[in-house]
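Late entry, zinc ion complex.
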Amino acid sequence: MRIAVDLHIHSALSPCGDSEMTPNNIVNMAYIKGLDVIAVTDHNSSENVGAVMKLGLEKGIIVIPGMEVQSREEVHLLCYFTGLDQTMDFQEVVYKNLDGINNPGFFGRQMIMDEHDRLVAENEKLLIGSTNLSVEQIINQVKERGGRVIPAHVDKRSYSIISNLGFIPPSLDIKTVEVSKAGDMEKLLREYGFLKRYHIVRSSDAHRLEDILEREFYIDAACMDVSGIVNSL
Ligand SMILES: [Zn+2]
Ligand SMILES: [Zn+2]
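Prediction complete; structure with ligand written out below:
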């Protein structure tokens, strides 16, 4: 089944996310753009995922619970789960391994919202920082909870597994990597031929509403539900 996706979207919980990235605005924009499946992947937190999932159900859009975790090597990893419980359980692990307090005036506000876009609280942790978890530890923690990890924006010169580690260690159980929306696939494959062995997902990494994808990138999944899609990654 060919499914139009955008699996990398930041909400207003990410300090760098626009304040207009509310649960309702994200789901409504995905609906207008005709997407089948989205994922909300805030930096080191999933506290807006529940609200977006509720709204997705109403609009007929599948919302994959996710998080973009920053490892201690400063590698961004997209973590996807089959349910909210597993995601919240993983969030506990991330929070225990995250130091520092956010400075909203400098990094931006970190707004936790409900399904009516009401401000529930502001997250006070330094979500923009690195966790104390290694790439390998993150992958193991996600796997233990039945989830999947996709290294984010491998075409970028910073915060990517290739830029920071130089390669993708074969010992890591990774099948899929993300290339950013504007990434030049031909150039990337010329430079890093080993990427031919991986499935490629392309996402927006949207921090503003207008950056959410149209129906432009697709994945194949056996069935159209959260588990089917996560297991295909
Ligand atoms: Zn990133
Ligand atoms: Zn991101």
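The first strand starts at residue 2 and ends at 9. Will revisit in the morning.
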